[in-house]
Amino acid sequence: MVIVDWSASASPKLGKDSIWLAHVDAGAPPSLRALKNLATRAEAVSWLLAAFGEAKQRGRHLVCGFDFSFGYPAGYSELLRRAFAKEASGKTPFERVLSVTSALIRDSSSNDNNRFEVAALINGRTKCALFWGHPPKRTYESLSPTKALPKGLSTNPLTPLRHTERSLAVKTNWQLAGAGAVGSQVLMGLPVLDQLWRSVTAPSLWPFEPHGLAADGGAVMLAEVWPTMFTKGNKEGVIRDSWQVESTAIALGSLHSSQWSELLAPKAWEELSPSEHDEVLGEEGWILGKT
């Protein structure tokens, strides 16, 4: 079990609000193999690819959970398909979002990136004020620092939250900056998700495709997590991000097979309409542990 706390930092960074990951061997009790703080997304990708490769070589199953959303509210992929026909090469709605985001985002080995420019470009091309929020002292024609509507754009026609988020105290993925904003992590996380998915380790992406954990031999599954579900309080003197990845990895690493079956086929899906169920599995995704 690997749990990753992601970061959209524009420069190498350690400590609070940087990338943390915990690697736990499942069992009763689970044991902590590694707790890492990595300064760049490039370092994190290298570490993860090595961990995935080791798991497959040893014939072990490995679940890797990231604390950013794997998707946006339903309808976003169609807006991208119309505005970015060349880049929207994916066969499914989810794959189209991955392909467009990966094509547009530039992320250097030192964390320098163009996420706000990309958000402004998407707003401008779709003619909708989807994304909002950017650092002070910057100006973008099609991206507002607040929810104020940029000139020439229509209001966001999509919902603020996905189905899996609607009963949780979470921020919208459309907000890129400001207190508690998570949108930048999503924009900077999806290209990495795409890179890992297409790597030689061939992980599966839950819930968009069969998870493969029941197969013989090594298998890697990538999933979205919300550490608040598994973390109670804080550990005194320990950075919250560090404590959350460790606690979440240990909590999930202690589950037995029947509990995993419930997580991978949550009862909440039974309450969705057929069209909502298709939106979840085809585009929006789901938070692992939201039952």
Strand content: 5-15%
Q: Helix proportion of residues, in percent? A: 25-40%
The largest sheet, given as strand count, sense and whether it forms a barrel, is: 6 strands, mixed
Number of helices: 8
Low-confidence stretches: none
Mean pLDDT: 95
Radius of gyration: 19 Å
Structural class: alpha/beta
Going across the major beta sheet, what is the strand order? 3-2-1-4-8-7
Oligomer: single chain
Order of helices and strands: EEEHEHHHEEHEEHHH
Shape: globular
Q: How many strands appear in the DSSP assignment?
A: 8
Query: How far apart lie the N and C ends?
Result: 20 Å
Structure explained in plain terms:
The protein is an alpha/beta fold and 291 residues long. The chain has a domain of 168 residues. The strands form 2 sheets. A 6-stranded mixed β-sheet has the order 3-2-1-4-8-7, sandwiched between helices. Strands 5-6 form a two-stranded parallel ribbon. Helix 2 packs across helix 3 and helix 3 crosses helix 5. The longest helix is centred in the N-terminal third of the chain and has 17 residues. It is globular and about 60 Å long. The mean pLDDT is 95.
Quick tags:
two-stranded parallel ribbon, single chain, 291 residues, globular, 8 strands, six-stranded mixed sheet, alpha/beta
